[in-house]
Design a protein that fits this description.
Blueprint lengths: L7 H6 L4 H11 L10 E7 L2 E7 L8 E6 L2 E6 L19 E6 L4 E9 L2 E8 L29 H5 L1
Antiparallel strand pairs: 1-2, 2-7, 3-4, 4-5, 6-7
Length: 159
């Protein structure tokens, strides 16, 4: 039994969260994309992640990694050699596409193909302008008022 949630009340009282609601709605829908080839997602540090995809039989030229606006896409298309006649074909070489939604400020740091395993390293880098910062509190005496109360000149108040 699939449970569906209605996010309409949240749309009325929140601004700027459209992307989050779209992610939740997409996650609820049944995935039509296959999970082949298998992959792992690991957290390798406080702000670093690694995606590992088993791509046995694929060469670097057969793989395409694209990052655009919080979406990482990995596409594999193996170039077939029609000169071989297979008696048994157990190594899958069908094309695939994996899409990974990335959070804001997550970027691809590196990728590597080694022993049939494609690894993609991701890093979350929050810009300095968005990091928490300490705000200094100034005392009233530093502003020129010993008690902090505003002063009214008697002459200007009488006029």
């Amino acid at each position: 039994m699939a449970t569906s949630y209605d996010y309409t009340p949240l749309f009325r009282s929140s601004i700027g969260f459209d992307r989050v609601f779209n992610l939740l709605e997409n996650a609820q829908r049944g995935r039509s994309v296959s999970d082949w080839p298998p992959y792992d997602i690991a957290k390798t540090g406080a702000d670093s992640y690694r995606i590992s995809i088993a791509v046995a039989g694929f060469a670097e030229g057969d793989l395409d990694i694209t990052f655009q606006t919080n979406l990482l896409t990995v596409i594999g298309k193996k170039q077939e050699s029609s000169s071989e006649a297979y008696l048994h074909r157990g190594i899958a070489s069908r094309p695939f596409e994996h899409r990974f939604e990335l959070a804001d400020h997550v970027r691809v740091a590196a990728s590597e193909l080694n022993n049939g395993l494609l690894t993609i390293d991701l890093v979350r880098e929050i810009p300095e302008a968005l990091k928490p910062r300490k705000i200094n509190i100034q005392s009233a005496s530093a502003l020129g008022r010993p008690d902090g109360a505003p002063q009214i000149d008697a002459q200007s108040a009488a006029v």
